[in-house]
Amino acid sequence: MTQYSAFALLKNALSGHKNWREQWPDAQPKAEYDVIIVGAGGHGLGAAYYLAKEHGITNVAVIDKGWLGGGNTGRNTTIIRSNYLYDESARLYDHALDLWEDLSQDLNYNVMYSKRGVMMLAHNVHDVQSFKRHIHSNRLNGVDNRWLSPEDAKVFCPPLNISRDARYPVVGAALQMRAGTARHDAVAWGYARAAAARGVDIIQNCPVIAIRRGPDGAVQGVDTAKGFIRAKKVAVSAAGNTSVVMQSAGLRMPLESYPLQALVSEPIKPVFPCVVMSNTVHAYISQSDKGELVIGSGTDQYVSYSQRGGLPLIEHTVAAICEVFPIFSRMRMLRKWGGIVDVTPDRSPILGKMPVKGLYVNCGWGTGGFKATPGAGHLLAWTVAKDEPHPINAPFTLERFTTGRLIDEAAAAAVAH
Amino acid sequence: MLLIHCPYCDETLPEPEFTYAGEAHVARPADPMALSDEEWRDFLFVRSNPRGTHYERWRHINGCGRFFNAIRDTVTDKFAMTYRAGEPRPNLDALKEAAE
């Protein structure tokens, strides 16, 4: 792997940028691996990277039915935050935030992590009470979060409409300064390059047809479009398609897959300094470094694998944005798209061992998986390497749906997130 | 936007008239006291979530207000048919053969 640096950039500039090497080779499957990871998104590639780097397991394949980072990793709104209510969630997402801090240096790849702050708007008494409860809970857990008056919120984000007669009046906001955005594609590419440099095979355009189990029930490997690949350990990190993949191993999951949509505007000059979310009117918005406004919508109400969603949701989201930010009411939207998110009943992920020997899963991140990318990869790698969960992901079991020990972030926020 | 046929109103109407109500034919346990934790899990939380034919419930909330069932392909989002609540689960393959 060529190390990227200012010097390398200068050297390649002098030769007209004609000598850059490919970032990772496109591998073909070997007959057997120690670990197979199903799904080459940020989470799966991250797990491969940490398996190689921290656990010395390099005979690893990451298999994807499409291209690397082409699923939800390339379809999200790139928001990173960790202001979750419950202790388990706060630890999980803050662990990811810790890894985001020096991810670019770790991977030698600029993931453009920008701590621009995420501000969540409160529009009514319920929001104020709920957010203040979140803030207190977060601060007890060492997660930064603070309360802003409407005037302070306006100073932090000048395009905000805090007029008292607005349709959705802003009565305050919760601000996490350590939160922000990152370049989503670069996260997948950076992990892919760093993992491949340590010997991981990245196999694209190779759908996994089934997980094969032996007579003793243990995992033997995966049947793919490119034939059977043997492995004693298989980790599924397949987002919206998790139910389908797990079904092939004989497991029914507590998951439902919904389309989640996002859209971007035409690019404009820098006008929007932070990320603003409004759970109540369900809109969130930031500005990319390219200048586009990146707007997140909600999930469709019905189960679907279509990777596109309905227009009524987009209309609702854009209408809310125009009320909260009248400055954007004349902007044109360039394109919209959808990703398929796997949602658990309590809106917390499932990350750990399965009741099948050699099978591990990382799923159920719902509408908020991107922010957890480094943490999910790191914890999945730990769980696979040691065959036991890390203390941080230990509560996020599949068994919690049998015991009733849920981590009910759904009830905590009263919206999908 | 989905266009959905309400089997009670016998009209095909736009999606905002309806709310989705989850997987169909998930029967409430006849004897709840006899259920094990695993059976409760399956009833409450586990869903088939198929990539393809899906049996699901809808409610014509901004119309007649009634619940009905539908068969929809989750890849194309295309409805095969809708039918009234309480009717048995139709055999889609048999219906297709009959149509041919």
TrEMBL record, chain A:
Pfam families: DAO. GO terms for biological process: tetrahydrofolate metabolic process. It is found in: Cytoplasm. InterPro entries: FAD-dep_OxRdtase, FAD/NAD-bd_sf, Rhodanese-like_dom, SoxB. Its cofactor is FAD; FMN. It catalyses: sarcosine + O2 + H2O = formaldehyde + glycine + H2O2; sarcosine + (6S)-5,6,7,8-tetrahydrofolate + O2 = (6R)-5,10-methylene-5,6,7,8-tetrahydrofolate + glycine + H2O2. The keyword Transmembrane does not apply. GO terms for molecular function: nucleotide binding; sarcosine oxidase activity. Residues 35-79 form the Rhodanese domain. It comes from the Bacteria. Its EC number is 1.5.3.24. It is an enzyme of class 1 (oxidoreductase). One of its GO terms (cellular component) is cytoplasm. Its main location: cytoplasm. Transmembrane segments: none annotated. Keywords: Cytoplasm, FAD, Flavoprotein, FMN, Nucleotide-binding, Oxidoreductase. Belongs to the SoxB family. This is Sarcosine oxidase subunit beta.
UniProtKB/TrEMBL annotation, chain B:
It comes from Rubellimicrobium rubrum. GO terms for molecular function: sarcosine oxidase activity. It holds the Pfam family SoxD. This is Sarcosine oxidase subunit delta family protein. GO terms for biological process: tetrahydrofolate metabolic process.
